[in-house]
Amino acid sequence: MEYAAGYPLAPPAEPDLPRGRAVRLALLAVLASSVLGVPLGLLWAALAPDTPVLKVADGAIYAEPQPEQPIAADGWFSLLGLGFGVLAALALWFLLRRVRGPVGLLAAVLGALGAALVAWQVGRRTGLADYERLLQGAPVGQAFEKPADLRAGGIEWVLGVLPVPHGNLLLPAFGAAVTYTLLAGWSRWPSLRPEREPGVPGLSWESAGTPAPSAAPEPPAPGAAAPPHG
Description:
With 230 residues, the protein is an alpha+beta fold.
């Protein structure tokens, strides 16, 4: 780190990115966050308990009147999703400093929402093939387990064409939005990126190498009387 007059030099202010490049970086961040929904879904499937069911003539019913496993599955998804949203916002804030602002916030929210959708589908499909095979071929009365799924969240189709996520599918995006907004609110720089600070030695916009004016007395003006010699 360089120093000037005993003060560390702040990182130089970073110029704004061209709009096209900022959008491309934001889309790349959304894609990367959505892909991370795959391990998130596998983790959810590993932690959320399966629900015991019994085969009946027309399908399967819960083996217990009020099973707790579906509630636990919703709870695990909510906790993991909130944690993912917070971490995603932190990562985008520190890794993509040059798109901080509305574009970065939108990328964090959309990326967390995409990760939630991917995690839900990956998690609910883990073990689903075995369940459907047992559902079709098991004799009536046989007990087996149903993989975790969401009851407090999912997709609603508006007018049959517009998918709208709801419930705890929105928690990752909520966590990302709150975290990113708090980071922006706590930022000491109006541009949300490190800037030079005027008025502090070594951090002003003027050159730090400009010499200070000399404190030596000025030479006498032409024609001035010389001091008497002792």
